[in-house]
Every structure is written in structure tokens, then in C-alpha cells.
Amino acid sequence: MISVKDAFETILNHVTVLPYETCVLGKATSRTLRHPVSTDHDLPPYNRIMMDGIAARSEAFIGGDQVRLKIIGLQSAGSLRKELTNTFDCFEVATGAVLPLGADVVIPVEEISISENYATVSEAFKLTPGRYIHRKGSDRSKGEVLLPEGIRLGAKEIAVAASCGYNELKVAACPSVAIISTGDELVDIDKVPMPHQIRRSNSHSLAAALLSSGLGIPNLSHFVDDASKVRDGLLHVLQTAQIITLCGGVSKGRLDHLPRALEAVGVIKHFHWVAQRPGKPFLFGTGPSGQPVFALPGNPLSALTCFHRYVIPALEKMAGRKHKLIMKLPLQEPYSFKPQLTNFLPIEINNGVLGSEVKPHPAGNSGDFAGILNTDGFIELPAEGTDYRKGLTLPFWPWL
Ligand code: AMP
Ligand code: MG
């Protein structure tokens, strides 16, 4: 039996970075950026007014008397920059407009009263130079790299790419990921199962995790527990999918055909059985053209946990996605786990006195997928320990 650490390393050593493809910005959410994005202009590109009000010349305030200014026009957002030459003139201005040439102060609308084209500034108003003016280039300069290669494109990254004029982006190719359930007891979700059957849920939960990661396109299918049908199915899927995820049929039961069938179709096995709970029967191999093949145990919790712990990180590497920090969170209460196995323990994050801490929600068994509904993810308890003290910080893997 291989350790979690060795299993993980073996997988990463057998996956390589996929090529990139071009994607329109509107479809790039959650994809992996494969080139740096730099700004084609200063940010902001002009002295931007940050308040509705008036823009004036500070010299108008030198005398200290109440200031009354003649409004000579409107500098609206999107209008060409106007010029202010006379000391006691001003422009009405809008948030987002260019600061008029010659103006150096902005007085918010709340601080003025307007009548007959004159603006009187309230006596209480304190002039602060530069206030309400977002200076050209003060955020970033033209040419600066704003987004490095290898990041996941979320809303804030899409905002930056849009503002820098990237109508298209180079992103990691989104591979087709076969997600195959196995088992004669499983029926489609639109069927009413007979008393000895259940609906297949794993394929859908793994597909959901995959879709929210943005790392692949799920392609769902099913194998019945028949050795030759499993072999035929595998031969077909090896020709069509870039990544293969199977669940169920990988343990020691009489009808667990996958280990032998995978060997028969030329999948090279790199390991079978990992010192972990849940998910001990996990098998990893590579197909004839190097496709990674993840055969996950069928128990819903085992399949989902292994998918998060191994398959998603492998897909991240294939996408060229930069390794993200694995957060460590402290235990809210002591916890014991005696077997010499790495334990992936479902947890709920709570607010403690010093910050976030995790409350264990051990699953009754790895078939209890309803038991993790109130959990946020799982922590990884190392195989070496048996008693884990309150406050011990442990790696946390969030559910996708
Ligand atoms: P196996 O790994 O095939 O021995 O399956 C272990 C357990 O997981 C059995 O109780 C199966 O019925 C269940 N199981 C296997 N595949 C699925 C699936 N796709 N959805 C829900 N339960 C499953
Ligand atoms: Mg089965």
C-alpha cells in the first residue's frame, strides 16, 4: 500500500501541461490564464473625478472668504476635457469625468448650493488638495503586468482583462474528462430505483466539482458489472477521452472488474491501494497514449474526496495553473483516529475566539454522502498520528 504523499507525487509525475487555446473573454470565467496580461494604458487613464460636484481652481480659496464661483459648463463623464482659466469660474462635474485643465480641486455637491449659474461653497468646507481626484497612473502604469500567467480567471481578473482590452485570452485547453460510474445496482437519476437499486449520484457530484473548477468538460457514462463490457467500454473511452475517471468496481469483490480490465486494455498501473480513509482501493494508471486513469472507489464519500485530493490537483497541473496555497486550520476539539492511515476528515468551519477553527464531522461510513452536507471540506490527518490535539493546524481541502 502506497502513502498519500507518494500517491500524489506519482500522479503529478505522470501528468504534463496541456497546450493553450484562445477563448473569448465572455467564456473565460474559471479558466486558467496562459499568458501575462498587461495594461495598455495608465490606470486610471486620466485624472478621474471621484465625486459629483464642481471642479475649480484652488487659488479661488486663498482669501478665506466664502467662495462663490461662476459655473461655465458641465464636464460630464465621457466628455472631452475642458479648460478652466479664470480663478472664480468652475465646471459642474460628474463622477468618472476628466478633471478639467486648470482645475485642481473638486468640491462635492453636498458642499455647495447652486443658484443662477453660481455655486456657493459652504463655509464649513475644508479644502484638501487632491481630494476626490483619482490621479492618472496612480494605480498602475501603462505596460505593467496585472495578471500573471497560470491564475484562475475569477470576476476580478476578468475585470482587469476587460479594462485592458483583452477581447480574447489564451487559456489552458479544457480537456474532456470521462466520468464513468460502474455497478449493476445503479440506475439513471430519472428512474425510480427498485428496492435493490440506487440512483447513480457519484458521476453527477464529480461532474459538478469538475465544472466548478473550470478544469475540464465532464463526459458521463456507465459500465455494468460485466468483465467483457467493461473491457470494451474502456477501449472505447481510451480513444476518446483525455482523462479518465472511473468510480466503483476497483476493490476486491468478485465483480470488481476494473483492475484486471484496465490491465487487459493496456493501462499501466502505477499504484493500487493507498494508505488512506476514505478511498483505500484507489488505483491510478496511464493509458496507451499517456492518458491519466483515476479509478476511484465507488463509495460516494471516497469518490468525492479522492477527486478533490488527487484528480483536481492533477488537472491543475495539466492546465498550468499555479499551485495554490493549501490553507491550514486548527482543530476546534481533540480528535482521535487509530488506524495507520491518512484520514480525510469532513469538517465544518466555525468562528473561534482566535479566528476560524474546524469541527470534525466524521462520516458514519463512506457511503454516507448526506452526512457531509453541513461540512465545508475535509482536513488531512497524517497517518503517523492517532491523537490530534485541539488547536493543531491541519491542511484543509474545501469542497468545490
Ligand atoms: P464499489 O466500489 O463498486 O464496491 O461500490 C461501493 C459502494 O458505492 C456501493 O455501495 C455502491 O453501490 C456505491 N456506488 C458505486 N458507484 C456509485 C455511484 N456512481 N453513485 C452512488 N453510489 C455508488
Ligand atoms: Mg460496484
List the helices and strands and how they pair.
Elements lengths: L3 H10 L6 E5 L12 E2 L9 E2 L3 E4 L11 E8 L13 E5 L11 E4 L3 E4 L2 E4 L11 E2 L10 E3 L7 H9 L4 E5 L3 E7 L3 E2 L10 E2 L2 H12 L3 E7 L3 H14 L2 E5 L10 H7 L3 E5 L3 E2 L5 E4 L5 E5 L3 H20 L8 E3 L4 E2 L5 E10 L4 E5 L16 E5 L5 E2 L4 E6 L2
Parallel strand pairs: 5-6, 13-16, 13-17, 14-15, 17-21, 19-24
Antiparallel strand pairs: 1-12, 2-11, 3-10, 4-6, 4-7, 5-9, 8-9, 18-20, 20-21, 22-28, 23-27, 24-25, 24-26, 26-28
Helix pairs in contact: 3-6, 4-5
Bound molecules: adenosine monophosphate and magnesium ion.
- Please report which band the strand proportion falls in: under 5%, 5-15%, 15-25%, 25-35%, 35-45% or over 45%: 25-35%
Number of strands: 28
Shape: elongated
In CATH, the architecture of the largest domain is: 3-Layer(aba) Sandwich
- The CATH topology name of the largest domain reads Molybdenum Cofactor Biosythetic Enzyme, Chain A
Provide the domain count. 4
pLDDT averaged over residues = 96
Proportion of residues in helical segments: 10-25%
Bound molecules: adenosine monophosphate, magnesium ion
Structural class: alpha+beta
Radius of gyration: 30 Å
CATH top level class name of the largest domain: Alpha Beta
Give the count of helical stretches. Answer: 6
